[in-house]
Design a protein that fits this description.
Number of strands: 5
CATH class: Alpha Beta
Helix content: 10-25%
Shape: globular
Low-confidence stretches: none
Number of domains: 1
Number of helices: 2
CATH topology: YaeB-like fold
Structural class: alpha+beta
Strand content: 25-35%
Largest sheet: 5 strands, mixed
């Protein structure tokens, strides 16, 4: 089977995800329904490091994204293909 008119498809390198212990502790304390949504959002970061609603942090390195009433604080290293989840928490407590 050749490439045909559509061209070849290939998989791009996906980023690995590392979650800091503090962020993991906070994630596990979140109710399961919201926890699953947060995990899904983290997985989506592998394909899109800076989604349209991500906000660059001021005063420190990284970005934040919102998932319902929760926020994910993260940074990434493009050279190492790694996403680091720094913290996760309720929007009133995360900043």
């Amino acid at each position: 089977m050749g490439a045909g008119k559509e061209g070849s498809r290939f998989a791009l390198s996906r980023y690995s995800v590392e979650i800091r212990p503090q962020a993991l502790k906070h994630l596990l304390a979140i109710p399961s329904k919201e926890r699953l949504r947060i995990i899904g959002a983290i997985e989506l970061l592998r394909d899109n490091l800076i989604p349209p609603k991500a906000i660059k942090l001021k005063g420190r390195e990284g970005y934040r994204i919102g998932v319902g009433n929760y926020r994910i604080i993260y940074s990434f290293n493009a050279t190492k293909l790694m996403i680091l989840v720094v913290d996760i928490g309720h929007r009133r407590e995360i900043y």
